[in-house]
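Cont'd.
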Amino acid sequence: MTTQKTDPDIVVIGGGNAALCAATTAAEAGARVRILEAAPKPYRGGNSRHTRNFRCMHEGPLGPLTDSYSEEEYLADLMKVTGGKTDEHLARMAIRSSEECLPWMQEHGVRFQPSLSGTLSLSRTNAFFLGGGKSLVNAYYRTAEALGVEVCYEAPVTHLQVEDTHVTEVVYSHQGTEHRVSPKSVIVASGGFQADTDWLARAWGPAAKNFLIRGTPYNRGVVLKDLLDQGVEQVGDPTQCHAVAIDGRAPKFDGGIVTRLDCVPFSIVVNKHAQRFYDEGEDVWPKRYAIWGRLVANQPDQVGFVIIDAKSLELFMPSVFPPIKADTLGELAQKLDLPPKQLGATVEAFNVACGDTSGFHPTELDGVATSGLEPPKTNWARPITEPPFYGYTLRTGVTFTYLGLKVDENAQCTVGNRAVQNLWAAGETMAGSILGQGYLAGFGMTIGTVFGRIAGREAAKHAN
Amino acid sequence: MQIDLIHEARRQAEICNACRYCEGYCSVFPSLHRERAFSDGDITHLANLCHNCRGCYYACQYTAPHEFDLNLPKALAEVRQDSWKAHAWPNGFGTLFDRSGVAIAAALVLGFALIFALAQTLRPESGEGFYAYMSHGLMVAIFAPAFLLPLAALAVSLRRYWQSVGGGMLTLADFWSAIRSAGRMKNLEGGHGDGCNFEDEDRFTHARRHFHQATLYGFLLCFAATSAGTILHYGFGIEAPYGLFSLPKLLGVPGGLLLCLGTAGLGWLKTKADPNLGAPSAWGGEMAFVCLLFLVSATGLALYAVTGTGAVPVLFPLHLGAVLAFFLLTPYSKMAHGFYRLLSLAMEAKRARQADKV
């Protein structure tokens, strides 16, 4: 598999969705491609391993997708979550290309399934991978290897030598030795830096040490930092990332999808002083889950506590760890290490502010709101009265960071104002070129697929 | 049943239920996602519903070295194997599952020796074909109880199983759904129709599905051939040996060929597949069972091929000995899986039907 006798035409750094789309596209254009994946084989695929769907524009029913999802609606959804901090030109390009990507993905072995139970609201916009992201990654490796792409696992890249507007050398270690290659083209698709918690702490302050890293432990931003240090143009703010509020008992790294908690809309969420801090019922959860990571990050000790009662327990997807259960609020406070008196007072104030709950509807904005409470709860506000009571701790779970390489519409990197002649970037490592803040479910895979294919095409054109 | 095996399967099922990425692969996941908590009976039901296609293992982001250490095909295979042991009747016979390989070999030797000895000592004075070696009456005296008694034991086992998974009444539609599913091995199609993972890690192929089909339909054809022979004998007074264009031969020869091909294929695939994705302790017994079925079909065909030659006195007891071993061990070998599987598929049809109603 890894003969490494001759230098490849193209080196792809990284082994996730974007890297594989790039490698496959380049190999189909006739280039000799080598993938350098830092992770060992069981962990190959970066954060793609944890993904589950692909947000896709479509004019009419397409594959598993129902109805239609227009460019304008897609863009509007994106603008809403990013608060307008989006490069509209690149975003439109990604959105428009997404439609032709879906059949391409199928041709290259990816299989889809209907929207998962519990996620019906996404059946029109997001195409779910059968088996999830790891099955997509498996299929792409099979396809790439059949095309002659050479794959090296446990091959972390330590340095790219940038001279003027050229990458002249790629340095990596593999099987205990250092290798230096000088390919014609280089594609960087090695993700963000979120697994380097020191870097996160430099950006966020010590609070970042309390974050959980929901994604792969292998995205440490080594190549990203190396390139930025050599003047390759960067984009994005180092504090911006895709961060969601997850179960506080999740593993430090790599917890993935199962660590999510969908109960916030039916709860009150308090900080360690047992005080509420945000409207839990602002919108349906798929539209709000991505802001709660930052909300929790801004609370003392970067922790939150979800409190629900018996009548809400079965309204959300089961959690991977069972909730903390108690017969009284006082006992629950004790178990969660919250001040019992204050929790009692907070719940009491909330309960009093709840009004008519007869219009309660768990899957729609029902307008069942509090009155005279600050912050308000604007939907699904039902008093917390029915024992047993349940609680979860919430922590900030970072999936990927947005600080990255700035690319143009050809996925090409720049140094100063000039293009780096043989360097392209795809996936999370350049997602900051499009996403300024916020996150839209399934958009990371759209960026990776669209820009991976572009990078592969351009890199092959250059190499040939 | 072994509570630690159920605990481990439940631990894994709860993680799966929070993920749900594998929903489309097979019947196990929609069934699992219907529940929020899993009783021992639920876990046993899921275990018997699992066809060990392994799609979920290779797609799983939480397999070792991840700390969640998921291996659902293995966890369910262990519970499945244990459920057959626990429900086996008479009590105590379930341990035969643990020694399936040895049991099959021993039964085979004894069966061969018995038939050989009987054929030598009680050789009829007249008779045609095989009946020249053993009278029809003696064959019936041996094989009727050897066939019916194990089936009765199996029926008791299945009844116990049915109670443990919360059985209840089934409709004809539930049975029909189970038969259709098993008939095309729907659960080895992978949801996308590309087949299952087995012999080459995450590559999807139809190899296992097709070899299993050959085995299943080959077996059913052979069974039909025997039944046709019985009907011809008792109903129409037409006795063996039958010509090539008779019903028993028209069913039996293709059936035997299919069974040979299917079992050879399944055995070969088994040598390629990762044993740690099933119940490792059951591997030997399963392999022995596949070999036994191959032996039954191969000796059956060979016996037909050597009709009238000097090889018959050896092949004849070998074939009947293998059939005897196969019959006797039906409730305590891999053969039992077909019955449990059909019940679990019917049960699943029922559960899905009831969930739809709500």
